[in-house]
Every structure is written in C-alpha cells, then in structure tokens.
Amino acid sequence: MVYRATTLTESKKSGTRARILKEARHLVSQGGFSAAAVVPVAQRSGIATGTIYRHFPSKAELVAEVFRFATEHELAAVIRASQIGNTVSERLMSAVETFAIRALKAPRLAYALIAEPVDPLVEKERLSYRFAYAEAFEDLINDGVHSQEFAPQNAAITAAALVGFLSEVLVGPLAPQPGHEENIQQQNIIVPLNYQALLSEINALTLRLVGKVNEDNG
After folding, report:
1. Comparing C-alpha atoms, which of 137, 147, 151 is closest to residue 212?
2. Neighbours of 170 (CB within 10 A)
3. Measured at the alpha carbon of residue 49, what is the angle toward residues 48 and 50, in degrees to the nearest 5?
C-alpha cells in the first residue's frame, strides 16, 4: 500500500518547519549565523536534533533558508514603505529610511544579513536579494526620472550603487562590538538620537545619488 501524506500530516510538517525557521532567526538576531547551530535550534524548537535534518539536509541549507526567511521579511517592509508619499522623492526616502531604521533597531540580525562571512550557499542568496532590493529602487528611480524629479540616468546602475551605498554606510554602526555579541535583546533597541544625524546624511546622499532636481531651478 502506497503511503500518502494526509492534510494533517503536511500541516504538522509545515508548522514544524516554520517553527524551526522562527527559532533559528531568533538565534541569528542574537549571535549571527554561527549561533544558528543545529542543537540550539532544535532545543528552542522543542524537537529532536534529527528532526532538523528531515527538513534541512545540512546546517548550510538551514542557514540559507533562514537568510531567505529573514530577508524576504525585510524586503517586503521596504517595498511597502516605497508606496508611502505624495512624490517619488518622498517614496524613495520612505524606503531608504525603512531599510536603515530597521537595520539599526536590529543590528545583529542586519549585520548578519548584510556583511557577516557566510557559506557560499548563503552568499548566493545574499547576492540574489541585493538584486531584488536594486530592482525595487530601480522602479522608484525610473518613476522619478519620468516625473522629472530626478535627472535622466541609467536607473539600474544608480539602484545598484544605492544598495551598495546603504550596505557599506551601515556596516560600521551595525558591526558587533567586542564583548557584546551575545544576549542582546534586539527587539528592545531604540535608535539612539545620534543615529538621527546618520539617517539625515543617508537621506541627503541618496538624493544626491539619484540626482534630485532642484525645484528652484526647475
């Protein structure tokens, strides 16, 4: 008799997988991808270590899926923010500020997603999502060019430069400080007041990068 998975069985498997990803993401937010080892992930998920391998063939596969899980969430937030504003410039600022503020409020997770040395499988995912962010910004830049808010340009190149700029400018503030890598309650971190100056600089540099047209000069 051929075994066929029931709806209940599939639902249980899906729930277990989602719980594994959630707990692994929590560990990454506390100590980076190195913290998402199979044993602690299994312990936090309330399952046996062997169960992890039923869903993910290796730690590299688990970490790559955690990266996708976390980055999809962040990318979705930026895309939603890109719809907020009456002008393209406002929409772009909303998207850029969302990217930066979310990173600064969860520095350990953001550093892991942006810059932590990772397995080649995860690095491949990182590159894929950099392209996804660039595509989102490219659409905004093209809108700005069409509305004559931004100077004529190759939007794809500018968008790629913007993603690189945002990643590089945030690496320093996000980098874990010696002795503070563990047990950081990321959810309770509030962006310090001195970061407001950083956000202002990021906004100003973004507008210069996209060639925002000075309204006084037409």
Report:
1. 151
2. 21
3. 90
CATH architecture of the domain with range 61-217:
Orthogonal Bundle (1.10)
Residues pairing with 150 in the sheet = 212
Closest CA to 26 of 82, 126, 130, 109: 109
Q: Which tokens sit at 132?
A: 């996804």
Model confidence pLDDT, tens digit, residues 118-159? 889 889 999 999 999 999 999 999 999 999 999 999 999 999
Q: What contacts 42, CB < 8 A, 6 or more positions away? A: 48, 49, 51, 52
User: How many angstroms separate the CA atoms of 21 and 115, rounded?
Assistant: 20
Instruction: For 186-213, write each residue's pLDDT tens digit.
Output: 434 444 557 888 999 999 999 999 999 9
